[in-house]
Amino acid sequence: MTMKKFLNDPSDLVGELLSGFALAHADKVKLTENNLVVRAEPKAKNKVALVTLGGSGHEPALSGYVGQGMLDISVPGEIFAAPGPPKLIEALRMANRPAGVLLIVLNHAGDVMSANMAMEMAEQEGLNVRQILTHEDISTGPRDKPEERRGLVGCLAVIKVAGAAAEQGASLDKCWEIADRMERNMATLAVAVTSAAHPCTGEAISEIPETDMIIGMGQHGESGSAQTELKTADETAEIMLNMLIVDLSVKKGDDILLMINGVGSTTLMEQYVVLNSCKKILDSKKINMVRCTAGEFLTVQEMGGFQMFMARMDSELAELWDAPCKCPCMAT
Amino acid sequence: MTMKKFLNDPSDLVGELLSGFALAHADKVKLTENNLVVRAEPKAKNKVALVTLGGSGHEPALSGYVGQGMLDISVPGEIFAAPGPPKLIEALRMANRPAGVLLIVLNHAGDVMSANMAMEMAEQEGLNVRQILTHEDISTGPRDKPEERRGLVGCLAVIKVAGAAAEQGASLDKCWEIADRMERNMATLAVAVTSAAHPCTGEAISEIPETDMIIGMGQHGESGSAQTELKTADETAEIMLNMLIVDLSVKKGDDILLMINGVGSTTLMEQYVVLNSCKKILDSKKINMVRCTAGEFLTVQEMGGFQMFMARMDSELAELWDAPCKCPCMAT
Amino acid sequence: MLLGAVELIRENHRKLSELDSFGGDGDHGTTMLRAMENLKNSVASSESGQIKKLLGEVAWAVMGADGGATGPLFGSFFMGMSNGAGQGETLDCAALASMFEAGLDCVSKRTKAQVGDKTIMDAMIPAVNEIRQAADEGLDIPAILERAADAARQGADSTKNLQPRLGRAKNAGQQSLGHEDPGAVSVSLIFKGFMKGALNDGG
Amino acid sequence: MLLGAVELIRENHRKLSELDSFGGDGDHGTTMLRAMENLKNSVASSESGQIKKLLGEVAWAVMGADGGATGPLFGSFFMGMSNGAGQGETLDCAALASMFEAGLDCVSKRTKAQVGDKTIMDAMIPAVNEIRQAADEGLDIPAILERAADAARQGADSTKNLQPRLGRAKNAGQQSLGHEDPGAVSVSLIFKGFMKGALNDGG
Ligand SMILES: Nc1ncnc2c1ncn2[C@@H]1O[C@H](COP(=O)(O)OP(=O)(O)O)[C@@H](O)[C@H]1O
Ligand SMILES: Nc1ncnc2c1ncn2[C@@H]1O[C@H](COP(=O)(O)OP(=O)(O)O)[C@@H](O)[C@H]1O
Ligand SMILES: [Mg+2]
Ligand SMILES: [Mg+2]
Ligand SMILES: [Mg+2]
Ligand SMILES: [Mg+2]
Prior knowledge:
The complex is a heterotetramer, with 2 copies of chain A and 2 copies of chain C. Chain A is an alpha/beta fold. Chain A folds into 2 domains: 10-184, 3-Layer(aba) Sandwich (Rossmann fold); 186-321, Dihydroxyacetone kinase, domain 2 (Hypothetical Protein Tm841, Chain: A,domain 3, 2-Layer Sandwich), CATH 3.30.1180. Chain A is built from 8 helices and 14 strands. Chain A has helices spanning 13-24, 85-95, 109-125, 154-167, 172-184, 233-248, 268-284, 315-322; strands spanning 29-31, 37-39, 49-56, 73-79, 101-106, 129-134, 186-194, 212-215, 226-229, 255-262, 288-295, 304-312, 326-327, 330-331. In chain A, the strands form 3 sheets. Chain A has a 6-stranded mixed sheet, with helices on both faces. Chain A has a 6-stranded mixed sheet with strand order 9-8-7-12-10-11. In chain A, helix 4 (154-167) runs antiparallel to helix 5, helix 4 crosses helix 8 and helix 6 (233-248) packs across helix 7. Chain A is globular and about 50 Å long. Chain C is an all-alpha fold. Chain C has a single domain (2-200), classed as Serine Threonine Protein Phosphatase 5, Tetratricopeptide repeat (Alpha Horseshoe), CATH 1.25.40.340. Chain C is 67% helix and 0% strand. Chain C starts with a helix and ends with a helix. The chains are: A alpha/beta, C mainly alpha. At the A-D interface, strand 4, helix 2 and helix 3 of A face helix 1, helix 2, helix 3 and helix 4 of D. The complex binds adenosine-5'-diphosphate (2 copies) and magnesium ion (4 copies).
């Protein structure tokens, strides 16, 4: 199967995509000389700044969430590859302020290494930065070994609630506490049905048999744990919900946030159908889906499948989830 | 190739997708008993109401644009099939008010027939409705035969500017005039690279050779006019821009709005790359891209490709384009 | 009479969708199926024995199937038939012909399509003309409908060699050459169903 | 010495990406290529003849390739070598060994991976150990690097039969069995490149 993407020279890909991104959303973001994505109108200096980093090719993540109520700086890497420490330390220096900086890092080897190196440098330089790691992929490790869990779409929830807290003037410690509370109460599980092509190599990034689906497939098409034949929306939702409920020990009467994240070619139509399936099942279990959403928040090129995200919510988290935001790819 | 979609019984598909849609966006929209999509908080009765209709399977269109600053009621049909006159007349009755109702119709046989029949009934009943037809697909007919041109993503621009005018309290005649001005000054061209499966039949809705792209492919995979081998983003942008520029007689120094609409599996990454290509080309032609955007606004399931939309803008249209809106799938 | 059509569409909907895939969007069978289910339900729930009223309800039900072009076109056909029907509970042959002509008239208001455009009209126009002629010749209703069904079938067959000039399939160009127009085939199935239905329930 | 590595990665980047596709995300070759282009540019633009300074610049350039895990790991290797290098413009064999050991140390700070985890460490640890041993045996620099290259190559080969326990490929399970770890192959190519480079430019 030939790759059918609209591209120019793949070695300029990230630069071109970021330029196009900045054009499309010039009212909300701009690019620095070094291709960091920053707000068009910076946040007041007396409020905590949020910074994140991550590979490209997952649009609208993560730069699509730079803006009022969410991120201050996004540090995009190359396709599926975290940015290196040089860009990240530049971003931390730029964001640094007395109120402090919260660095949100998804648990993938490259992101963590870059973040750790930049954090060491930041400490040496006396920058005021705290780090939060997101690791909620229940398919890659048990809850008591968070270091084995990958960071999936859950980063969005963490950015949303911590970003809202920062916008409201919360301290760095408070923002960190909010982010940490969200992080400890969330879980994600992915399912994949079709592969995608790596935009630079043109090769398929995974192999999925014609009639199968793979539960637990990662952000970059890394294989997952369970392979079964393709199931209906109801059946798939039931399997995934049950795994998330067990992982989070969600009980009858608990309040949860549910998010369906389409990873590429799975249609919004299907995401709504799955969300509707989830609602029926959760109702039958008397679990309260107090908030929910569906959409393409963090994609893996044109891969088919979705990530199901669940989080136990308290009233403070729900309020921060609802708080207004104005970002290129998320606004209320 | 087996269809790999997360679905239940296809005969309930539209109902399920609408329920999921309403769950995901409960803060902005709700469903009537008869599955019309209406605003959660209705617009003041002294302002013009906007109504549209269209087949399902094109999510987020059209119901994703119900909300403040855009539509009041969306009448969703079945998959790829316009709703019939019974639902539409119900919507027009519901929307009817002294300030009047603007009905926006995309030029497809079914939509137009339903709209005409409903308009005849509305007239008999004395409802205060005016209709605007969008037909901007330059691949299906010349500019002087608008009735041959299909309605593509341009409906979004019409809804945006007319919706903003309505929200600001403009009269029905003024809203119609704005919609008509936008409509007469816009043009769209689509390109397709991969097909999609019809969610009810499971069959491919078009056939595209492995290494080719088809310029002029319609909203539902209907074949287009020109078939060539797959080209780079720059080359594709050049071909499409030139055709749009000729059609609209855009001249050096003109102000335009450009919109890249991903129709399914073409990534946001690619859309940004294409937008960036367009900017370079337009700069070289000294045409001012005063507004632009990219995203999945009106899809054709998981089809690969995009629609390129261009409109000549004046300052009033640009201001209305910028006006705030709060809809499930478009917000500023 | 009407329910015979439901049965035939149900049996052939896959083929109709397949025909619609040569340049169209591949949904005509699904849509006709939905329209016919609605038709069946409306007949079942109708309390009136009056043909005019029944046809009016059927028209609204068919249009309520949200079937793109199909709903308004086939709905208009029944709506026109309702307009053209007398107030009674039975029909004579002349009234039958007038009723079908009114149906065709109502469809003509919705589309400019003529014979040769590769649409439903290629089957519907000859079928309705044939009904008038057969009625004028003094045939009985089952025989009239048999002639209509034949004419519709021939009309549908003739679309094989046509290029579409209207509707979604218009831009398909060559793609649909060699294949019948799905809408015309639906019309022929419906007339065949009327015929079968008329033989079964006698009218 | 360094530029020999650039050449070999350039020749083999497709194979490296392919190896990364068995359970990884298929980009390792692309990433290494970018890192090596950065390395080359930084060597070209470096104004210092001092090894320590040059390696520091190289380390930063490699990390600046935004290469996921690869940037920090290989960057750390050069960073450690820079830390371990003396102030001069040439190296003796013992200093060479210390320099490489410092490189390995710095990488070890970034990862818990050991021999057997199917990562770069399967090639890097034996290669650096071999350098120390060969230096202790009194060999000259090209010979030392030849021994290192062999050890790295053997280490990379050994990853074929391992299951990954760290990094993105971890969850691949069986998929990568029978295939070498791409990172380990890169390390072996780099050491081979060092050897070739040392033969060419004599140091
Ligand atoms: N303008 C028209 N006039 C007459 N018949 C039409 C017209 N447009 C479409 N049709 C008929 O409708 C059929 C397609 O119906 P269907 O697939 O159900 O609707 P859609 O084209 O909206 O998907 C065509 O085969 C043709 O017979
Ligand atoms: N935690 C780790 N420790 C040591 N080496 C690692 C680690 N994670 C990944 N690697 C090495 O990196 C290689 C993959 O590199 P690359 O594909 O460039 O990065 P990414 O995994 O971010 O896509 C693996 O083959 C492995 O050798
Ligand atoms: Mg990678
Ligand atoms: Mg249709
Ligand atoms: Mg059709
Ligand atoms: Mg990789």
